[in-house]
Amino acid sequence: MGQKDLTQKDLESCPDVFADTINSLLYEGKQVLLPQDLQPAPTETLYHGTEAFLRNQFHDVSQYVVQDGRIKAQYTLENESNASSKMILRKAGYEGAVYRNQYEKQTKDIFPIISSVLHWGKRRWKSPNNLKDLLKKQTLPESTINLIDNIQLRVYNMRFLSRAVRERFTSNMRIVVDYLAEEDKYIPTDQPILHVEAFLRMMTELSDDFRYEEIIANLANRPTGKGAITMCKLLDKYEAKGEQRVNQLVSLLLKESRIDDIAKAVSNREYQQKLFKKYGI
C-alpha cells in the first residue's frame, strides 16, 4: 500500500467520514448509513496463489453495518491514484473471499459486500469498469461474452465530482473534494475540521501543497481553547506567515545577488522549500 493510500485510509476510517462518503456517492446524499451503526471490518482476505499456498490481499477501508447485533452489510473503499485495467479482478477476489467465508460458516447471516473505488488521479479513469469489457480484449466470440456473469466496478473520479455531488457531503471530505475540484478558485469556508491531523495528511499528499506539512508540524504548539479549526483560519494564518518567510528569503538572496534564484523560488514551490530549509527560515 502506497503512502497516499495510507493517508486517505486514515481519514476515511473515521465513521462520520466513511458514512458520509458512501451516502454522498452511492445513495445521492440520503442518510442510509449512520456512523453509529458502523464497525471496522477485516481489511485482509486470503486466497490460494499460484504457488499452492495461501496469500493475502488487503482492502483500504472496510466497515460493517451492524444493527440489532447482526451484520447487515459490508462496505469497502479502495483508493487508487492510477487506473488499473485489472482492478475488476481484484474486486472479484475481494468479494469472492467474503462470500466464500459466509458459505463455509454455514450461517444464516448472509450479507452483501458493496465495494467502491475512489480514484484520486489527475486524469479520469478510463480502464474497464466491468468484466465483460475487460474480457472483450481477449477476442472471445460474442456468444461467449454474453454468457459471462458481468461484475461491475463502481469508480468515482474524486477530482472531477460535479458541484451537485460535492454539495451532498457534510463531513471533512467535503473540504477535500471542493479543494481538489476548484484548485486555484477554491474559497475557504468556516466548516470545522473535526479530524485535523488525518485531514491535513490527506491534503498534503493529494494537493502537493507544502503548507499542510508546516501546519502539521505546528499543531503541537497550538494553544488549547482556541475554538474550531477551519480552512479559512488555517489558510489565512499560514498565507500571512508564508508572505513573511518569502520576504525574508528574498531579502537574503538579494544580499547575495542571487537574482535568478529569487525568480525560481517565487515560481517553484519545491525549490522555495529547499531554500527555506537551507537558510533556516
Keywords:
281 residues; alpha/beta; 7 strands; 15% strand; single chain; two-stranded antiparallel sheet; five-stranded mixed beta sheet
Short description:
The protein is of the alpha/beta class. It has 12 helices and 7 strands. Helix 1 (3-12) runs antiparallel to helix 8 (196-207), helix 8 (196-207) packs antiparallel against helix 9 and helix 11 (259-267) crosses helix 12.
What does this protein look like?
The chain has 281 residues and is of the alpha/beta class. It has a domain at 3-187. It is 47% helix and 15% strand. It has 12 helices and 7 strands. The chain has helices at residues 3-12, 15-26, 87-105, 131-136, 142-145, 163-166, 173-182, 196-207, 211-219, 231-255, 259-267, 269-279, and strands at 38-40, 44-48, 54-58, 61-67, 70-80, 113-119, 155-157. The radius of gyration is 23 Å and the shape is elongated. The relative contact order is 0.10.
Secondary-structure element series: HHEEEEEHEHHEHHHHHHH
* Helix content estimate: 40-55%
Distance between the termini: 34 Å
* Uncertain stretches: none
Strand order of the largest sheet: 1-4-5-6-7
Major sheet size, sense and barrel closure: 5 strands, mixed
The tally of beta strands, per DSSP, is 7
The whole-number mean of residue pLDDT values reads 85
Figure out the total of helices.
12
The fraction of residues assigned to DSSP E strands is 5-15%
- Using only C-alpha atoms, the radius of gyration works out to 23 Å
